[in-house]
Amino acid sequence: MANSDAVVVDGLRVRRGGRVVLHDVSLVVPRGSITGLLGPSGCGKTTLMRAVVGVQIVEAGTVTVLGEPAGSPRLRDKIGYATQNPSVYADLTVTESLRYFAAVVRAPAGDVARVIDEVGLGTHADHIVGDLSGGQLNRASLAVALLGRPELLVLDEPTVGLDPVLREELWALFHKLAARGVTLLVSSHVMDEAARCDRLLLMREGHILADDTPDALRTATDADDLEQAFLKLVRQQETPA
User: Fold this and answer.
1) How far from 228 is each of 37, 82, 223, CA to CA, in Å?
2) Helices 134-146 & 111-118, crossing angle to 10 degrees?
3) Over the stretch 6-35, which tens digit does the pLDDT of each residue have?
4) Which of 23, 28, 29, 171 is most buried per CB count within 10 Å?
5) Contact 183/32 with Cβ under 8 angstroms?
6) Residue 7 CB burial class (10 angstroms; 0-12, 13-18, ≥19)
7) How far, in Å, CA of 178 to CA of 196, rounded?
8) Which residues of the chain have pLDDT under 70?
9) CB 83, CB 141: distance < 8 Å
10) 150: phi then psi, degrees, rounded to nearest 5
């Protein structure tokens, strides 16, 4: 694994419920980049991210993360993972919940206040998690992933349910993190977020249709925007050779 690569996936195949959901997927995520994992719901994005984090049973292939096999104990304090479902306790306040997770990952003193501020929950720090809105819950889960200053952030649909202003603030945070060397793998089914990424992995039905920069994808497909580029790639796949 090259020093410039945070994640290397080689020939990954995953079967769930008797059905193959990832078909011999191979890809590379460069260190310090924001790599967007884009595609419609059900295409395999979450399964791929679970494999990167090391919590997905795989049938074949390898996943190497920060130089270690995915799931290695040595990666526990190096990866932050925010799932689609909230990962905070509903009966605790935001601060109490984050203090618990900070103790689990042995985050440094002051980390709870830092991540609350970074995700914009300062005015809700003492609110019960169960009383938060959907967007606020997403931000609380993201705060958990940021504890301990991980080297790799795996974020599954982190902006779902957020209004445009909050989405803009979070993407500004993502770029700030990348600028200080953090690698981000961010999934979305919203194509207008694709242009915010350094690289794009376009997925459909368990296959990687493209792995390139936004500008290169527009050029390769002669498309004005990335949604049209994705549609052209789908049509090319469906056209018989």
Assistant:
1) 16, 29, 6
2) 140
3) 999 999 999 998 899 999 999 999 999 999
4) 29
5) yes
6) buried
7) 12
8) 1-3, 239-241
9) yes
10) -65, 155
How many Cα atoms within 13 Å fall on the side-chain side of residue 160?
Answer: 18
117-153: pLDDT as tens digits:
988 899 999 999 999 988 888 889 999 999 998 999 9
Coil, strand or helix at 232: helix
pLDDT (0 to 100) of residue 3:
63
CB under 8 A, 24+ apart: contacts of 211-216 = 211/27, 211/28
35 pairs with which residues across the strands?
A: 185, 199
Predicted pLDDT of residue 234? 83
| Cα–Cα distance for residue pair 139/162, rounded to 1 Å | 9
Amino acid residing at 177: L
Alpha-carbon separation of residue 14 from 64, 82, 241 (angstroms):
16, 21, 27
Walk across the sheet containing 207-212 and list its strands: 79-82, 152-156, 183-188, 34-38, 199-204, 207-212
Q: What is the 3-state secondary structure (H, E, C) of 139-186?
A: HHHHHHHHCCCCCEEEEECCCCCCCHHHHHHHHHHHHHHHHCCCEEEE
The DSSP H or E segment spanning 187 is strand 183-188
Q: Which residue has the tokens 């909050």?
A: 166
Q: How far apart are the first and last CA of the chain?
A: 34
Lookup result for tokens 């200053």: 149
Residue 214 identity (one-letter amino acid): P
Distance CA 223, CA 235 (A): 13
